[in-house]
Write a structure and sequence with these properties.
The complex is a heterodimer of chains A (about 525) and B (about 170). Chain A has about 525 residues and is mainly alpha-helical. Chain A has helices at about 20-25, 30-60, 70-105, 110-130, 155-185, 200-230, 245-275, 285-295, 315-325, 325-340, 350-375, 375-380, 385-415, 420-445, 460-480, 480-490, 525-535; strands at about 5-10, 415-420, 495. In chain B, strands 1-2-3-4-5 form a 5-stranded antiparallel β-sheet, with no helix packed on it. In chain B, strands 6-7-8 form a 3-stranded antiparallel β-sheet, with helices on one face. β1 of chain A pairs parallel with β6 of chain B, so a sheet runs across the interface.
């Protein structure tokens, strides 16, 4: 092609960038909003973690030591709500904000002001939730599942809880809409759906799940509100309502919610493993279809959370088999990750360490999930610490480990600096050892019959509870390393040379400088660049 | 960017921004989403849980608005029409149309490359102190291609190549 006549100009008008507090309060830049989400998520992780420390301290010995049973139940409830809606979900939204535009070659999210709104709703929602500790009747204490009729008996905290749930739901929906519209309409020319990185794919499917189930949660909590204040009887048996119906609706939301927290983790792991195996991802398309299959199956398995309420046998069988079916696409993923590593040129930097730990430990959570899927076995396990161990393996060593891996993977890209590798490895090993000390004994406690959500227990459970509590304190303390490593990296990390922080990294985000300019991809990437990044 | 339409004495080039979602794709996507979500909400409403329906409706309204707002950029179009005597540039968005006409004999096409490679180049048609920027939404390669085509069609200042030659 002939060269056009070109003149050079000394400046362009794309340098403008807000400064001071306005940059954050009125933020519309996807990176700034992503950063705010990640910081908020970290703060909520430590608040929820502090609640967990009190819970584990109380459970260190049988009998009542530190808090009364009401406060213990409130701590359990708020720990769950804060970790799910305040730590894990906002962390994923933060990562989506940072990475999706960079990975699809878009200049920003499709609806930047909506993005700002969806973030700034969150601090108000969580202030409201935490403020329930200071109102008459204390904080909600019926568990994060908010089952009636117990939840209907709360004091002034009840409407605050419902309002906070609505706010969190609005924030999630706005975030999901933004992600969907960005991915559907803002992809650079040549970035076809099957060239998108797995993280983008998993987020697209996650956003669909959010859109599908959030109205169900909103409807369910609104029905509870009207039952409480307006005399309706949706869930009030005395008025002809059905409390079990709430459980159906809640878990129709709640099970896809679990996948909302874990699907983006699959995306992150699918980015990290090929990079540190120096091989393309094995079975890219199979991974996409497996993710979609898991999302579909998440809508038809909800009643496995409530086998003991008295479901008909046919329903129990259906939900048992449909739940076991989830192991198939999940197995496809695990084997594809293993196949990606097979004969790869592996190296074990912190992101890869977290990814490998995710593979092993998430699989443990998956296997205990299969055990819980078996109706006769579930009758034994239901409501015990076995369930607590199961979902913590899925959500801590699954979702939270993937988030930490993602932070260690992309931090050099975000900051332009490399973090302290030795300290990050310390963080990994301390986390991995103590998370197992914390949660693995809970399997034994559950199998021995210790009920969950209890501040006191029979003396025969003391030993494993003490082991679990020691693991909990050590795991909690070791997490303080993460913000320190990030702070140290941003402040005085060694600058990253070139665009790629990792030798085997591929994808559009690694074609930009580190850190990326305030306005990135103002010029859409070329087809050649996209093709190079999409060598799955 | 659409291929130029050329008659014996007129060349017309239409350029529009990239939207990875077509209108048909958006309609299918939105229809599918509504069908799925309203089916779920409807089934739950049949079981007496009707308050889910209005939340679902509100959410779909929001999704529809978001798609509409994002697709609005699709209506941004620039039409460059070259005749033997004039070069006209029509910039359309959804509501407005701005038309700028330059005498072809005196018009110049300039592609300005910024000092930093992170910023896009800027393509303009200029004449008599007036300037009109073109194709700010194109990729770098597309803008370079358009610049070459326009430079051939319009020529340098004080040149008017025959339009019958057409672009390569």
């Amino acid at each position: 092609m002939a060269e056009p006549h070109v003149e050079t100009i000394a400046h362009a008008d794309h340098e403008h960038m807000p400064h001071g507090w306005r940059r954050w309060v009125f933020a519309t830049n996807h990176k700034d909003i992503g950063t705010m989400y990640l910081i908020a998520s970290c703060v909520m992780f430590f608040i929820g973690g502090a609640a967990a420390m009190v819970i584990r301290a109380e459970l260190f010995e049988p009998g009542m030591q530190l808090v009364d049973p009401g406060v213990f139940n409130s701590l359990t409830t708020l720990h769950g709500l804060i970790m799910i809606f305040g730590a894990i979900m906002p962390a994923w939204v933060g990562l989506a904000n940072w990475m999706i535009p960079l990975q699809i070659g878009a200049p920003d999210m499709a609806l930047p002001r909506l993005n700002n709104l969806s973030f700034w709703i969150l601090p108000f929602a969580f202030s409201l939730l935490i403020a329930t500790f200071f109102v008459p009747g204390s904080a909600p204490a019926g568990g994060w599942t908010m089952y009636p009729p117990l939840t209907l008996q709360f004091g002034d905290s009840f409407p605050m809880l419902i309002f906070a749930i609505h706010l969190m739901g609005i924030s999630s929906i706005l975030g999901a809409i933004n992600v969907i519209v960005t991915i559907m309409n803002m992809r650079a020319p040549g970035m076809t759906l099957l060239r998108m990185p797995l993280f983008v794919w998993t987020w697209l499917i996650t956003a669909f799940l959010l859109i599908a189930v959030m109205p169900v949660l909103a409807g369910a909590v609104t029905m509870m509100l009207t039952d409480h204040f307006f005399g309706t009887s949706f869930f009030n048996a005395a008025g002809g309502g059905d409390p079990v119906m709430f459980q159906h609706i809640f878990w129709f939301f709640g099970h896809p919610e679990v996948y909302i927290m874990i699907l983006p983790a699959f995306g992150v792991i699918s980015e990290i493993i090929p990079t540190f195996s120096r091989k393309p991802l094995f079975g890219y398309e199979a991974m996409v279809y497996a993710t979609a299959s898991i999302a579909f199956l998440s809508f038809i398995v909800w009643a496995h959370h409530m086998f003991t309420v008295g479901l008909p046998v046919s329903a129990q069988l259906f939900f048992m088999f449909s739940t076991m079916l989830i192991a198939v696409p999940t197995g496809v993923k695990v084997f594809n990750w293993a196949a990606t590593m097979w004969k790869g040129s592996l190296s074990f930097e912190p992101p890869m360490l977290f990814a490998v730990a995710f593979l092993f430990l998430f699989s443990i959570g998956g296997f205990s999930g299969l055990m819980l899927a078996l109706v006769p076995a579930d009758y034994q396990y239901h409501g015990t610490y076995f369930v607590v161990a199961h979902f913590h393996y899925v959500l801590v060593t699954g979702a939270a480990f993937a988030i930490m891996g993602a932070v260690y993977y992309w931090l050099p890209k975000w900051s332009g600096r490399m973090y302290d590798m030795a300290l990050a490895k310390w963080h990994f090993w301390l986390s991995t050892i103590f998370v197992n000390v914390l949660f693995f004994p809970q399997h034994f406690l559950g199998l021995a019959g210790m009920p969950r959500r209890t501040p006191d227990y029979a003396v025969q459970f003391t030993d494993w509870n003490q082991v679990s509590s020691i693991g909990g304190f050590a795991f909690g303390l070791s997490q303080l390393l993460l913000p320190y490593i990030v702070w140290k990296c941003v402040r005085s990390g060694k600058p990253v040379e070139g665009n790629r922080a990792w030798e085997g990294a591929h994808g559009l985000e690694w074609e930009l400088p580190s850190p990326p300019p305030f306005h990135s991809w103002t010029v859409p990437p070329s087809e050649a660049l996209i093709a190079r990044g999409a060598e799955h | 960017m659409e291929a130029p339409q050329q008659t014996r004495d007129t060349v017309r080039i239409v350029i529009c921004p990239n939207c990875s979602l077509t209108l048909k794709g958006a309609a299918l996507f939105f229809g599918g989403l509504c069908f799925f979500c309203f089916t779920l909400a409807g089934l739950l409403a049949l079981r007496g849980m009707w308050p889910i329906l209005p939340f679902c409706g509100l959410e779909m309204l929001l999704v529809g608005w978001a798609l509409h707002a994002s697709l609005a950029r699709r209506y941004r179009t620039e039409i460059i029409t070259l005749t033997e005597s004039d070069v006209s540039v029509e910039s359309h968005d959804r509501a407005n149309c701005l038309r700028t006409v330059f005498p072809r004999h005196w018009a110049q096409v300039k592609l300005r490359r910024p000092a930093s490679s992170l910023h896009p180049s800027r393509l303009t048609i200029e004449s008599h102190g007036r300037r009109c920027e073109l194709g700010s939404f194109l990729t770098e390669e597309e803008r370079c291609g358009l610049a070459i085509r326009l430079q051939r069609l319009i020529g340098r200042i004080n040149e008017s190549p025959s339009l019958a030659m057409g672009p390569e």
